[in-house]
Specification:
The structure holds 2 protein chains of 2 kinds. By secondary structure, chain A is mostly helical. Chain A has 5 helices and no strands. Chain A has a domain of about 60 residues. In chain A, about 80% of the residues lie in helices and about 0% in strands. In chain A, helix 1 packs across helix 2, helix 1 runs parallel beside helix 3 and helix 2 crosses helix 3. By secondary structure, chain B is mainly α. Chain B has 2 domains: about 90 residues, Rna Polymerase Sigma Factor, Chain: A (Orthogonal Bundle), CATH 1.10.1740.10; about 70 residues, Arc Repressor Mutant, subunit A (Orthogonal Bundle), CATH 1.10.10.10. Chain B contains 9 helices and no strands. Chain B starts with 6 loop residues before the first helix and ends with a helix. The chains are: A mainly alpha, B mainly alpha. Chains A and B meet through helix 1, helix 3, helix 4 and helix 5 of A and helix 2, helix 3, helix 5, helix 6 and helix 7 of B. The complex binds zinc ion. Zinc ion binds next to helix 1 and helix 3 of chain A.
């Protein structure tokens, strides 16, 4: 089994149940391959972190102080006023 | 607070006022899902126009802000659906890496082996700087990949729900998730764990 295939299966294992044969070959590859063993551990860590991550932390990180640009604000208001007049 | 406005108030209000009341909140929502600022503003704009057109449908059972976010959420999903369709018609997603720098050699070996990470999950979760790096890494990868990863890992969305939201097959979802994880892993290794 190639590392590229092993990593794909490791990732897919989070989405679906691997077949018995896949599991067996994967287990063997991970046993002999340090790189994929690390990858497997890292996947687990990422999974844990991302699931734990409070969406609030992320929201804070992403765009806590973003505001609509002044020009866009005017543009949207103008569009809405026009729509309101038409109705 | 404006968010508790009744149905009647909303429907008699000058819609231009909505922009001051809810514009920034919607923009932040959009930016938490995409990096492209112009695009985020476009979607906010569309959201307001749709909200105006359908204002009679706002029944006042939820907050007006919640109702607006629901419209925006659909706009965001629409966008990624279109985007993903364009991407998957231009390359076969089940094959190879579209990147300039492949992660594996043509014999399927790691080009650069993952390093050993020393990390305490509990500390990382609390570390704001780490999340800034995560956000940066998600922003650097193709947006349709980051979006699927966010749905799956942050929202714990089921694969089948992602399939129907984006109208793609489950193997497509797996391929995207796998790529996204590989890219996130590499990016974190470079920017955090080294
Ligand atoms: Zn390997």
């Amino acid at each position: 089994m190639k590392c590229s295939h092993a990593t794909k299966l490791l990732s897919e294992a989070e989405e679906r149940q691997l077949t018995g044969r896949e599991r067996l070959r994967l287990r063997f590859h991970v046993f002999v391959c340090t790189a994929c063993r690390r990858f497997k551990k890292q996947l687990g860590l990422l999974r844990l972190l991302l699931t734990e991550a409070s969406p609030k932390i992320l929201a804070a990180v992403y765009a806590s102080d973003a505001t609509l640009s002044a020009s866009r604000r005017q543009e949207i208001k103008a569009l809405l006023r026009r729509a309101a007049e038409e109705s | 607070m404006a968010s508790t406005q009744t149905k009647e108030q909303i429907q008699s209000q000058d819609p231009a006022e909505w922009v001051d009341l809810y514009g920034d909140m919607l923009l932040r929502y959009a930016l938490s899902r995409m990096r492209d600022r112009d695009l985020a503003e476009d979607l906010v704009q569309e959201t307001f126009l749709v909200a105006w057109k359908n204002r009679k449908e706002f029944a006042g059972r939820s907050r007006f802000s919640t109702w607006l976010v629901a419209i925006l959420r659909n706009k965001v999903a629409d966008h990624f659906r279109r985007e993903g369709r364009r991407k998957s018609s231009s390359l076969d997603e089940s094959e190879g890496e579209p990147e300039s720098e492949p992660l594996f050699s043509k014999w399927g070996k790691w080009k650069r082996s993952p390093k050993s990470w020393s990390a305490s999950p509990a500390e990382l979760v609390e570390n704001r700087e780490f999340w800034v790096v995560v956000a940066g890494c998600l922003g650097d990868m193709p947006a349709h990949l980051a979006y699927v990863l966010r749905l799956r890992e942050f929202k714990s969305a089921k694969t089948k729900d992602i399939c129907s939201l984006l109208e793609i097959s489950s193997s497509n979802v797996s391929v995207r998730l796998h790529r996204a994880r590989l890219l996130l892993r590499r990016c974190l290794e470079e920017k955090w764990f080294s």
